[in-house]
TrEMBL record:
HAMAP family: ATP_synth_a_bact
Stretches that traverse the bilayer: 149-168, 216-237, 243-261, 304-325, 337-364
PANTHER family: ATP SYNTHASE SUBUNIT A
Gene Ontology CC: one annotated term: proton-transporting ATP synthase complex
GO molecular-function term, one example from the UniProt record: proton-transporting ATP synthase activity, rotational mechanism
UniProt function note: Key component of the proton channel; it plays a direct role in the translocation of protons across the membrane.
Protein name, per record: ATP synthase subunit a
UniProt lineage: Bacteria, Pseudomonadati, Bacteroidota, Flavobacteriia, Flavobacteriales
Family: Belongs to the ATPase A chain family.
Amino acid sequence: MLKNNTIKSVLFALLTLVYVSSINAETSHEADVNHEENHEVASEKEGYDPIPVIMHHIADAHDWHFFDYNGHSYSMPLPVILWTENGLVTFMSSEFHHDDSGHHIVEKNGMNFVKSHEKIYQLEAGATKAEFDEAHHISNGVRPIDLSITKNIFSMLMSVFIILFVFLKTAGHYAKNGAVAPKGIASFMEPIIVFVRDDIAKINIGEKKYMKFMPYLLTVFFFIWFNNLLGLIPWIGGANLTGNIAVTLVLATFTLIITNINGNKEYWGHIFWMPGAPWPVKILLMPIELVGVLTKPFALMIRLFANMTAGHIVVLSLISLIFIFESVGMSAVSVPFALFISVLELLVAFLQAYVFTMLSALFIGTAVAEHH
């Protein structure tokens, strides 16, 4: 039984990948700014401004920035995939170069593309540089459909490959050895899978129906947990995937769909015509209950997004104190506190995966509960 659930979870992981990839992660962070522009703005100020650096770190990007050294930026280029009126255009993000206004620009297939605030615009025919309106929006260009492999999407692909490797190794062990005591990766995974089964699914959904939803609950738990952990690793990870509201929106939407598709007549009866209440009260409660159907997954989305983003901001804010006060001595305070928060984030990474999965199971359990 455990082996079958593990194999099914792999399929759900692939399904999650397809849906999350369909959302361009850059839409979730309107406050993101270009790294080079931030550096110029910060240098013009009297003191160090940590906000652009922090916002650049937690936002999505078309390349994977590692570090700056001697005035040079070291990063890994990622594929830019654009759907324009003239068809598909692809190139690497490293092809962008600066125009006279200081913005990234690239020429491809007779078209000029400019990158501003990590958003790519196709300039009008004949335009060689970006023009801006009073709100500092590009006025002589339009945004093509952006299907690029951004930093968050690349991080998600990496996490899915890790999940596939771990789950297939675990399933392979049980396929070969049956009920023999697990070893290696399987010995690490089994107690966590059993924990999700016994302490989340069974308790909230019930003995009779929990197995139907185990593949989804296992997938969403490990997807969130692994990506939370990857986001804490500098350079190798560091992407704020689970702190991206587009990703948490898709995960919450999965819970919404699964909950309402499997809702029985008791569940819908309590929403549209509350039993035992006078009919005027029923009419009053109906729109409130309908709103509640959407607010539950909305709370899931915001909770995961806010908690993971806050952790990144706190750590970066503590490190920024060294540059704000321009004192090496401040590192004696900020570095230990940042280390403490980083260790605490290891617990938060697991806790947020647990809370999202537990609440999803609770909502599903409410929808499939039989009348007592």
